[in-house]
Amino acid sequence: MKQLIIPVLLVLLGAGCSSTPDAPEQGGAPVESRGAGVAPVTADGVSGSKLPAILTDPKSILSKRSIYFDYDKFEVRAEYKDLVTAHAKFLADNRQFKMLIQGNTDDRGSREYNLALGQKRADAIKKMLTLLGAREEQLESVSLGEEKPKNEGQNEAAWAENRRGDMLYNGEF
Amino acid sequence: MLRPLLKLRGLSLIAFSTLALLQTPAQAELTIEITGAGANRIPLAIAEFGGDAGVARVLTSVVRSDLERSGLFKLIDTTGAAMTESTTPGYADLKNRGADALAAGSIGPSGDGRQEARYRLYDVNKQSALAGAAFVASTPMLRAAGHRIADAIYEKLVGEPGIFSTRIAYVVKSGANRYELHIADADGQNAQAALKSREPIISPTWSPDGGRLAYVSFENKKPVVYVHSLASGQRIVVANFKGSNSAPAWSPDGRKLAVVLSKDGGSQIFIVNADGSGVQRLTASSGINTEPFYAADGQSIYFTSDRGGSPQIYRTGVSGGDAQRITFDGSYNVSPRISPDGKTLAFISRRESGFRLAVMDLGSKQVQILTDSSKDESPTFAPNGRMILIATEIGGRGVLSAVSIDGRIKQRLSIPAGDVREPAWAPFTN
Question: Do residues B332 and B349 touch, judged by C-beta distance below 8 A?
Fold first, then answer.
């Protein structure tokens, strides 16, 4: 019986459809509400400006901005003491300058967890700069996690390059 | 006779109005490859739909590929002859071919310039009709009508809602500094770029109403959390405090977001209103607290913390209090996600030097590893809870992989020219 009714029913449905096209029966929303339009957006980002030569001259220690970390470690190694001290002194002598410290990790594991690990590295550099004379308000420590690798390779040498903190002055970020 | 007919009409008709939509397709579309299927697949014959041959072919192909891709159906070869919803099925022949169910239908003008797609589903053994419906759609929405038919067949035969009409979001990286947040149909088609940036985009997550995405963008050289309304392209900054802002997670009612902020030192979980107001700190332990995810009832939050010496998953109430440790096996368990029914935890576990998708039955605490890949990341549940989409790597390239919660069914989604990552499966929207 049911089998006989339904073909007839569908014919009726066809007619019903065009006369009441927007009747949302059975809770059926328009297909379009699921496939709704997506308005594209372009993120512009930021651009830099000129820095004093002492920060960029390759002969100046202040042109060196990267600090590398051991695997799963967050302490600034002793070999970077002079570098961090020089930047702390520059910041102490030039209070108008601000610094963004970006922590980075290799790409193994969760992106968000790596973001938090990179934050630990950036925070360690920031703490040392503060102890050596830079002011808290001159410094911001952030993490790029595994998102901006210096070396895209999948080996220990590449990973070591990516376990890194970078110090950027205003104009560079 | 009239009364039951009217009642049936209400049950079986889904009509939709049509808006002319200008869609800009993204350049590269996802292609899907099935790499595993379920053990007990339902033998289903889907006849060629009747009507204009070209249009009918598209419709038939959408319905067939949706259902086949689910891994739950074994498609039975049909004779190739078109069969409409009014054709009397040749039950004996179908039975000989091994089919338990038959779907047939047609596509034709609805009389107002649109197309009407109809289908009927039959039980071959009982020789009776199981379900039927008509769908009205504009020609550009033909695939959507096919997905609706596939959803209806799936629900009737499997007993749970289908996800073929849902959408997914993911990030494509092509070249050194080209990042695009894409929105596509669940079958990878109709991909559209919602955001293009020269800096990374991570952690997209859909609002419960399916209209907005929260994500982390690095366009200002640091992680900032945005909420992006897809239809308008309007974005609001939800968290841009000093330090890093990341890992957004919507509350089930869509009113709040859990986010991770480093403004007070370390990485701590905070809860903010969806407009960025009313920031309140949730976690207090030293070290890392990140990757919050609301429990299905909205009363607690799962998250990743290294408070015990290694990253593990914990749970705490939304008003704070002591955290309870959830994972114990292994030294690296991260990225907790709760299934829509609240019963299953999906996460990433480091095993035998590989990062793999795992699920835990929250009742029995039983853990099952679902993959044998080595770089799984970012799990996201399908809204019916049947599949989990993850990012993984094959041949050094980022791809998405959909894995059934029993691990039997696997599909791979990839884009030839780029790395695909950070998937987020949209909720049901009606």
Answer: yes
- Domain B167-425: which topology? Neuraminidase (2.120.10)
- Give me the CATH number covering residue A104: 3.30.1330.60
Of A3, A25, A119, the CB nearest to B10: A25
A26·B127 Cβ contact <8 A: no
Comparing A163 with A6, the larger pLDDT belongs to A163
Q: Give me the count of residues in chain B.
A: 430
The nearest CA of chain B is from the CA of A6 a distance in Å of 8
- Cα B85 from Cα A7, distance rounded (Å): 7
Contacts of B430 in chain A (CB under 8 A): 27-29, 33-34
Which residues in A lie closer than 8 A to residue B148 (C-beta atoms)?
31
Worst-scoring range by mean pLDDT, A36-40, B28-32, B388-392? B28-32
Six token digits for residue B278: 């009313």
DSSP symbols for A83-129:
HHHHHHHHHHH-TT--EEEEEE--SSS-HHHHHHHHHHHHHHHHHHH
pLDDT class of B28 with cuts at 50, 70, 90: low
Count of other CB atoms within 10 angstroms of residue B340: 17
Q: If DSSP states are collapsed to H, E and C, what string results for A70-86?
A: CCCCCCCCHHHHHHHHH
User: Is A160 strand, coil or helix?
Assistant: helix
Residue pair B46/B425 in contact (Cβ under 8 Å)? The answer is no
Residue A53 is which amino acid?
Answer: A
Q: Which fold has domain B38-158?
A: Rossmann fold (3.40.50)
- Is residue A12 included in any domain, yes or no? no
Q: Report how far residue B94's alpha carbon sits from residue B76's, in angstroms, rounded to the nearest whole number.
A: 9
pLDDT band of residue B36 (cuts 50, 70, 90) is low
Longest distance between any two alpha carbons in chain A, whole Å: 93
Contacts of A3 in chain B (CB under 8 A): 127-129
State whether B218 and A28 contact (CB < 8 Å): no
Q: Where are the domains of chain B?
A: 38-158, 167-425
Residue to test with chain B: of A11, A38, A100, A111, most B Cβ within 10 A: A38
Q: How many domains does chain A have?
A: 1
Structure confidence by residue, pLDDT tens digits, A137-166: 999 999 999 999 999 998 999 999 999 999
Q: Residue B322, exposed/middle/buried by CB under 10 A (0-12, 13-18, 19+)?
A: exposed
Distance CA A63, CA A61 (A): 5
What ipTM goes with this model?
A: 0.90
Mean pLDDT lowest among A33-42, A107-116, B346-355: A33-42
Average pLDDT over residues A80-97: 97
- Are residues B103 and B119 in contact, defined by beta-carbon separation less than 8 angstroms? yes
| Confidence (pLDDT) at B407 | 92
Cβ pair A111, A146 in contact under 8 A: yes
